[in-house]
Amino acid sequence: MYRYDEFDATFVRQRVSQFADQVDRRLKGEITEDEFKPLRLMNGVYLQLHAYMLRIAVPYGTLSSRQMRRLAHIARTYDKGYGHFTTRQNIQFNWPALKDVPTILSELAEVEMHAIQTSGNCIRNVTADHFAGAAFDEADDPRPYAEILRQWSSLHPEFSFLPRKFKIAVTGAAHDRAAIRLHDIGLEVKRDANGGIGFAVYVGGGQGRTPMLAREINPFVPEADLLAYVDAILRVYNLFGRRDNKFKARIKILVHETGIDEIRQMVEEEFQQIRGGVLGLPTEEVERIRAYFAPPAFEDRPAVSARLGAARAANPALDRFARQNLHRHKAPGYTSLTISLKPIGGIPGDASADQMDAVADIAETWAFSEIRVSHEQNLILPHVALDDVPEVYAALAAAGLATANAGAITDIIACPGLDYCALANARSIPIASELSERFGAPERQDEIGPLSIKISGCINACGHHHVGHIGILGVDRKGEEFYQISLGGNPDESASIGEIIGPGFSAEGVVDAVETVVDAYLKLRTSPEETFLAAYRRLGEAPFKEALYGA
Amino acid sequence: MPDILTANRLHDGDVVYRTAMGDWVADVDTAELIDDAEQLAEAEAAAQADVKASKVVDVAKIPVVVADGRVVPKRLRERIRAFGPTVKSDHRPGAV
């Protein structure tokens, strides 16, 4: 993993000490809330419905066992015993007291973590494929580049007050698990004919009230030019992005209103000015960063594990888990294992302090101490020997973490919604819990196959409802919660924005409505191999509309 | 429909309600019920003084109904602030 150098460590410590002083002055009444609010937001501290909320960055979703144990300690000591993993690969604590936040940040700094740039109109946490460095299908590990972008964008003076927040995602594989077309900038690591590394660059994607898919602005930017090209995009956005209207300030609006061809030309002109200058990426520097992400020492193992095979044959629950939660690894005899944070009927993304400790221990024992947070709000052990899966499964089951539903209909993304969030108009978590219970029977999940439900409690779309195969958006209609259903959204390389199927449903009716859609799909599909998304794309909305609202 | 004043306490962020005595307390039942404009103006002025004194932040006036002696905020958002998240407690990992 990347380790802080002296500069990083000193800087984060200074920042903690500055914030401790700012909190102290605020509590003594020496500065007003208007003066303090931008300072606390710059350090990840929001005021939500019930309490302060602290959002901690997990760069490109990568955590060590040591860091996870520290998060468990914070949950136990300063919060109510749990934390919430988010669709930005971050973790949020819902109940810290303001007076404790400087201590929390100081304890985080000891394990090379912080909450800087988790709020505000700056470049936020750079996210990446949660199987990065492990997946069988990637051109290269995207995380060294995410780290380079993190270093470049951290406290960048020119980009600290952008028109609006800015999100970058990187995938190393053509099959996009990082939703790069839904980000302000999306990057796909590619190789040219000579094996040289470069990036397909997408710009202007985003969700929120105006969902848009990013457009390709450049099919191949060579590695050496990565920072210069991304810098050029940011410069064009900083100059021409709208600052007069918060709802039109994201780069997606600029790209949409200006047109991708003109934007491409503006970026190219800017790029030609700065190309080859101080932002050039020297190969030695890339190699230095890449060394931090060197794969662990994998042993030579047979591709198929007889040991796991025998254990699966003897234990149907393990067999089901292995079928659902393992992802093919690039090294023979290894796998990437998803730890679902979606217990049936539970709260998507929540983990207790004890569970965090259990994951840290399991990762240390069987998975090179490496953990990932996925934007789907699960945890991943990226490198597990297939032979060890039975032991890992048993340890997870003992911690209540062995739900076998990765990618299934109960693997629901949900934002905190009106139960926690000051921006929300409707609740998300109780709808997610009810849907999970409705579809939770293993046979029912198996029958339905891969199907994603994503729920947001307001138009800001933190719950990614626009790209759920079934998306649910909670709104406030005359003081009542009301839920709009959209169908056909998808976040991967064949990305699409879901279409609202018709009038919305009450909180009491929305779960039945989703089941109506699912039952219609089961009747309409050509075979169990035809997924919900494939069936929707073949059939369009009409048969689903008819099922929901009648002819 | 009477109003009450709510805020978040500065040092821990907790949801609090203003009583007739001018204290800020967690129990919504002990909030001062405000029925007329003059009473409201006085209470709001006092609350803003507490904002200036760095006791509370985000003061807001919210409508409530009183039923069986219990004070219940009218809007769902405020009921959730008053009574806590509606997520099932047995589903909340490590909840206290």
Summarize the structure in words:
The complex is a heterodimer of chains A (551) and B (96). Chain A has 551 residues and is of the alpha+beta class. Chain A folds into 4 domains: 6-109, Sulfite Reductase Hemoprotein, domain 2 (Alpha-Beta Complex); 134-292, Sulfite Reductase Hemoprotein, domain 1; 306-398, Sulfite Reductase Hemoprotein, domain 2 (Alpha-Beta Complex), CATH 3.90.480.20; 413-549, 2-Layer Sandwich (Sulfite Reductase Hemoprotein, domain 1). Chain A contains 18 helices and 21 strands. Chain A is globular. The mean pLDDT of chain A is 97. Chain B is of the alpha+beta class. Chain B has one domain. In chain B, 25% of the residues lie in helices and 30% in strands. Chain B is built from 2 helices and 5 strands, in the order βββαββα. Chain B is globular and about 40 Å long. Classes of the chains: A alpha+beta (551), B alpha+beta (96). Chains A and B meet through strand 13, helix 12 and helix 14 of A and helix 2 of B.
The radius of gyration computed from the alpha-carbon positions of chain A, rounded to a whole number of angstroms, is 23 Å
Architecture per CATH nomenclature, i.e. the level-2 architecture of the largest domain in chain A: 2-Layer Sandwich
Low-confidence parts of chain A: none
Task: Give me the count of strands of chain A.
Answer: 21
- Ends of chain A: how far apart? 57 Å
Order of helices and strands of chain B: EEEHEEH
Gist?
Chain A is an alpha+beta fold and 551 residues long. Chain A contains 18 helices and 21 strands.
Layout: helices, strands, pairs:
The complex is a heterodimer of chains A (551) and B (96).
Chain A: H1 6-27, H2 33-42, E1 45-47, E2 52-56, E3 62-64, H3 65-78, E4 82-85, E5 91-93, H4 101-109, E6 127-128, H5 143-153, E7 168-171, E8 185-191, E9 197-203, E10 215-222, H6 226-240, H7 251-258, H8 260-274, H9 283-292, H10 306-314, H11 316-325, E11 326-328, E12 334-339, E13 350-352, H12 353-366, E14 370-373, E15 379-385, H13 389-398, E16 413-414, H14 429-439, H15 442-448, E17 453-456, E18 470-477, E19 480-487, E20 499-500, E21 505-506, H16 510-524, H17 532-539, H18 542-549
Parallel strand pairs in A: 6-7, 7-8, 16-17, 17-18
Antiparallel strand pairs in A: 1-2, 2-5, 3-14, 4-5, 4-13, 8-9, 9-10, 11-12, 12-15, 14-15, 18-19, 19-20, 19-21
Helix pairs in contact in A: 1-2, 1-4, 3-12, 5-9, 6-8, 7-8, 10-11, 14-16, 16-18
Chain B: E1 3-9, E2 15-18, E3 24-25, H1 37-52, E4 56-67, E5 70-73, H2 76-83
Antiparallel strand pairs in B: 1-2, 1-4, 2-3, 4-5
